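Students often ask what a 'structure token' actually looks like in practice. Rather than answer in the abstract, let us consider AP-1 complex subunit gamma, a protein of 818 residues. Its sequence is given first.
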Amino acid sequence: MPAPIRLRELIRTIRTARTQAEEREMIQKECAAIRSSFREEDNTYRCRNVAKLLYMHMLGYPAHFGQLECLKLIASQKFTDKRIGYLGAMLLLDERQDVHLLMTNCIKNDLNHSTQYVQGLALCTLGCMGSSEMCRDLAGEVEKLLKTSNSYLRKKAALCAVHVIRKVPELMEMFLPATKNLLNEKNHGVLHTSVVLLTEMCERSPDMLAHFRKLVPQLVRILKNLIMSGYSPEHDVSGISDPFLQVRILRLLRILGRNDDDSSEAMNDILAQVATNTETSKNVGNAILYETVLTIMDIKSESGLRVLAINILGRFLLNNDKNIRYVALTSLLKTVQTDHNAVQRHRSTIVDCLKDLDVSIKRRAMELSFALVNGNNVRGMMKELLYFLDSCEPEFKADCASGIFLAAEKYAPSKRWHIDTIMRVLTTAGSYVRDDAVPNLIQLITNSVEMHAYTVQRLYKAILGDYSQQPLVQVASWCIGEYGDLLVSGQCEEEEPIQVTEDEVLDILESVLISNMSASVTRGYALTAIMKLSTRFTCTVNRIKKVVSIYGSSIDVELQQRAVEYNALFKKYDHMRPALLERMPVLEKATTNGPTEIVQTNGETEPAVLETKPPPSGLQPASQANDLLDLLGGSDITPVIPTAPTSKPASAGGELLDLLGDLNLTGSPVSAPAPQIAQPSFLLDGLSSQPLFNDIAAGIPSITAYNKNGLKIDFTFERSNTNPSVTVITIQASNSTELDMTDFVFQAAVPKTFQLQLLSPSSSVIPAFNSGTITQVIKVLNPQKQQLRMRIKLTYNHKGSAMQDLAEVNNFPPQSWQ
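Now compare that with the structural description of the same chain:
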């Protein structure tokens, strides 16, 4: 059989292929030749054939038939064969294939080989693809090589030990004696790998973390020598001595100094030296400075040092490199809550980033700008953000509009400014606002009694001839229906009143009804507004009757039903019309529960200590559920039902007709859902003297609904005694990380065929290291016995950052809902 072609010739031949089909044909032809050679047990060219096979594997072609040949090369006594064999094993084998166990004995022999390069090959392979079984069998040899005096082997053994610890954490203590002397090594390669090993051990074991904290002075000394050392050609990168080792040491110091005063105190000076002495003209220096900033912000550092770190990030914002600017904005966003005043000094630079062409930088700058808004700068920041809203890409408008709404609600200097700001948003980006923007603005206008005339006049002028912004048209229709008499009378004192007749007002509303741009919901607003004007206007009642009667035969079922019911008001129940259509009372703002009640001042003067009031037992506020629904989207979700109805001021007929509700005077069923959800009987189960649930819980298996980033949430199930259609779910939230999770809030939503009630949680802090849990009870009413589905939203603070996540739970056991 002729000698097979060399690897170089194969590469050159494949590169001459003009099409994918031609390349595939060459590969298939060569694979056939390699297979034939393998079948003939050709030891002479096995190494060459495996090398070619690895090249084809890197091109994406199947090469699994070469796995056993790799093992034969590993067993060979020639170093060239072993090198290709171990390389093939790392590329073609992994722990999912049983074949890899066959090489355990070969690796063990090679770890004890007399040649360091053969030992190095075995260490690399074990550290790359060793399974837990292989790691258990070979950990002793790795630990022995970790103590050797050979620097070449020690650095490879340290990295292999990292892999062993990841696979078999209980073997960690085996390497503890060997790691004590690693930091005394002069060789930078060994130093680097030893710091990686120490980092892995500290991250995986609190005991190791406490043990290695005494090494902080030694790490500080190594870092100081790196900074102060002169030019060393073998370690120099762009004028900086071994930046890779510096970054690794800074990361280890960050872990050791977290939540420890003594360790943090010991590293404050060296961090200040790194921050002030590192050259920033090159990217290498910026990488070290970034790690320094992260370490300063994560440990218990001095306030001056934290200001220095934020000023470094401020300088990053002026860098021409987009990646550095993005990193700076992301880091400032994480620190803005803890060091607000220091970040505020860079506000102008952050606002300038809103004009950046890069969309990633623009988004981070927008999020950080909203985090910087407070009562002192709200006018200036809103001016910049409204300008950004005018000019930004469509994908930013929804988030920007929501942010402006929240900031305006929180820090508005006056009600007029608040209303003007929201109207400006609706005028420029009305089509992008969230669904709750319309009811929220209506509530704001309703509660601002002295601004009614001004607001209705502004809204009337805003929609003249332009119905493209549907939320704006909806708010304007509602306000004209409520306060049309103020518009016609010209009682506006805040600005020059306009002269409008009743017919002109009705012309606008009729135009909204017939406009092609008007959505069905908008037409509903307009028709109800026209109906309300029948009690505010005097000269146009007959015209209103005519308009309402026309829509009694509309093809839109919603409009048709409204019109039929309104016609009934004009005829049979005319005596009730003034009371039913009277002006809406001042609406009470629903308050949120839990940690969101804490006043966030964004850097303003400290608030007085608030008297904390315990939340009503068994209540989870409806506003939290609505926030969750806005985020989850979809029309098949039903909101959380509170355990007690919200008290509202009584008014003559005021609650009989909600603007978007349906009037049912004859007692016949209506097709659209009523605006208020009927309170189911299961909500009062907790007040009963009977047990809330029966003892069949043992038959319903528990599930893990969420397990990510150290947070685990388990569901256990019980069935209600008083109502068989009620499932009682108890959630247990645990935290396996090394830091507590604070301000924990759990929210849930279910489809419309279910009804859901959240009771108060046992706490808002989940202790670290699984040392405690939070429990919370959910009741789900499932009258139709349908399969249970649930979407959950989790918010909490962890490691100084606000965390938020969504998940869908679909794996409920059948016993919980059947």
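One point worth highlighting: Confidence is low (pLDDT under 50) at residues 591-601, 604-697. Ask yourself how you might have guessed this from the sequence alone, and why that guess would often be unreliable.
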